[in-house]
Amino acid sequence: MNRLDLLYNHRYLKYNDCIAVLPILTGAQNPVLRSKTKPIEKVTKEIKKLLKDMEETAKSAEGVGIAAPQVGRSERVCLAMINGRSAPLINPEITWKSEETDVQQEGCLSLPGIWLLVPRATAIAVRYLDEKGQLQERMLKDWDARVTQHEVDHLDGILIVDYQPEEHQTDRETAQPAL
Ligand SMILES: [Zn+2]
Questions:
Q1: Mean pLDDT in residue range 78-102
Q2: Higher model confidence: residue 137 or residue 19?
Q3: Which listed residue (151, 166, 167, 173) is catalytic?
Q4: What spacing in Å lies between the alpha carbon of 69 and ligand 1's midpoint?
Q5: Does residue 90 sit in helix, strand or coil?
Q6: Is the predicted pLDDT of residue 176 greater than 90, yes or no?
Q7: Per residue in 22-55, is it b (16+ CB within 10 Å) or e — as a string?
Q8: Are residues 106 and 179 in contact, defined by beta-carbon separation less than 8 angstroms?
Q9: How many beta carbons lie within 10 A of that of residue 101, not counting itself?
């Protein structure tokens, strides 16, 4: 092994060491999943690390989004797949929702095996801080809007089972990504 290999391996190990896949909390009655999160005051190193770990956790579970309560945390932060990219949303608030809604099947990493038809606004505006602590406001539509509404719901202690009576719950029928 030459010097470059050593250097590369060292970096690689260090990179892997500092990112963790976190356990995902499950269950519609889990008190952490049912608690409203608290906005954070500053985007600290610790928050950035939490977001990295959450991203890795979502990736390893093949989820397209994840919210802090799902990994047992109470900060108002989540990740949502927007435009095919995992976007960190810090202190997100949905500031506008279209009157138009549609109904699509959703799953949730915290409710394994449950897939439900959930009505959502087809377009939203969301205001949040990015990783640099900059205030952003974006208009989202269709799937991006749906994923973001699902994740922001998590930050308010709301789960997909809240949208439907139990008798309408179905087993996993089609392969949809979990959020
Ligand atoms: Zn979920």
A1: 97
A2: 137
A3: 151
A4: 10
A5: strand
A6: no
A7: bebbeeeebebbeeebeebeebeeebeebbbbbb
A8: yes
A9: 12
Q: Whose structure tokens read 């640099």?
A: 132
Confidence of residue 175 (pLDDT cuts 50, 70, 90): low
Quick one: tokens of 85? 């990219």
The pair phi, psi for residue 122, each rounded to 5°, is -80, -15
Predicted confidence (pLDDT) at residue 8 exceeds the cutoff of 90: no
166 catalytic, yes or no? Answer: no
The confidence band for 19, taking pLDDT boundaries of 50, 70 and 90, is confident
CATH assignment of 3-171, given 1.10.10.10, 3.40.50.300, 3.30.450.40, 3.90.45.10? 3.90.45.10
Instruction: Find the 93 Cα to ligand 1 centroid distance in Å.
Output: 17
Q: List, as ranges, residues with CB under 5 A of the ion ligand 1.
A: 108, 179
Q: How far away, in angstroms, is 2 Cα from ligand 1 center?
A: 46
The pTM (predicted TM-score) of the whole model is 0.84
Report how far ligand 1's centroid is from the alpha carbon of 16 (Å). Answer: 26
Confidence tier at 167 by pLDDT (50, 70, 90)? low
Which sequence spans correspond to the domains of the chain? Answer: 3-171
Q: What is the C-alpha to C-alpha distance for residues 116 and 127, in angstroms, rounded to an integer?
A: 27
Tokens representing residue 54 in the block: 């959450």
Q: How far is the CA of 72 from the centre of ligand 1 (A)?
A: 13
